[in-house]
Amino acid sequence: MTMFAAKDGKAANRAKSMLYHYSGGTYNYHIEPEFPDFMKPKSFKTSRNPQDLLNELYNKVTVFPNPAEDYTTFMYDLRKDIKISVLQIFDSKGVMVLSTQLTGNIGSYLWDTRNIPSGSYIYAIFAGGKKLNGGKVIIQK
């Protein structure tokens, strides 16, 4: 009976196939192919909220130039149902340096940075009390 012991765990199927064959029946057994590791599905964990990932996918914001000197432009393309949103910009200490209303779901806002000190700033766009997108902009003089 050692001929039925197989390392691949398919011994029962092989035994059934031989029994059907010798008893005059027909039996087609199928061995699942072994896929290389790179083809096997991978699971992953993320610490990010799925809603944040969807917001970044459907609410696009482009900031240019970045780094900026005298001005920078925020171009936004938000979900179609968003008509009014708010752009807020914070300095590295968390102090809000700008809060302005954006209208429409597609548009741009030109930020005059001539009187803004050099440094890193965090921006966020909110609608309905929820953050839609955000990022970092650098001012270099």
How does this structure look, described?
The chain has helices at residues 11-22, 50-58, and strands spanning 60-64, 71-77, 84-90, 96-103, 106-112, 119-127, 130-139. It is elongated. It contains 2 helices and 7 strands; from the N terminus they run H-H-E-E-E-E-E-E-E. The longest helix has 12 residues, at 11-22. It folds into 2 domains: 2-39, no CATH class; 50-139, Macroglobulin (MG2) domain (Immunoglobulin-like, Sandwich). Strand 1 (60-64) and strand 2 (71-77) form a beta hairpin.
Summarize the structure.
This protein is mainly beta and 141 residues long. It has helices at residues 11-22, 50-58, and strands at residues 60-64, 71-77, 84-90, 96-103, 106-112, 119-127, 130-139.
What is the end-to-end distance? Answer: 82 Å
On the 0-100 scale, what is the average pLDDT? 79
How many domains in all? 2
Whole-number radius of gyration? 30 Å
In CATH, the architecture of the largest domain is Sandwich
Order of helices and strands: HHEEEEEEE
CATH class of the largest domain: Mainly Beta
Which overall shape is indicated by the principal axes computed on the Cα atoms?
elongated
Low-confidence stretches: none
Helix content percent band: 10-25%
Quick tags:
single chain, 141 residues, mainly beta, Immunoglobulin-like, 2 domains, 4-stranded antiparallel beta sheet, 3-stranded antiparallel beta sheet, 2 helices, 7 strands, elongated
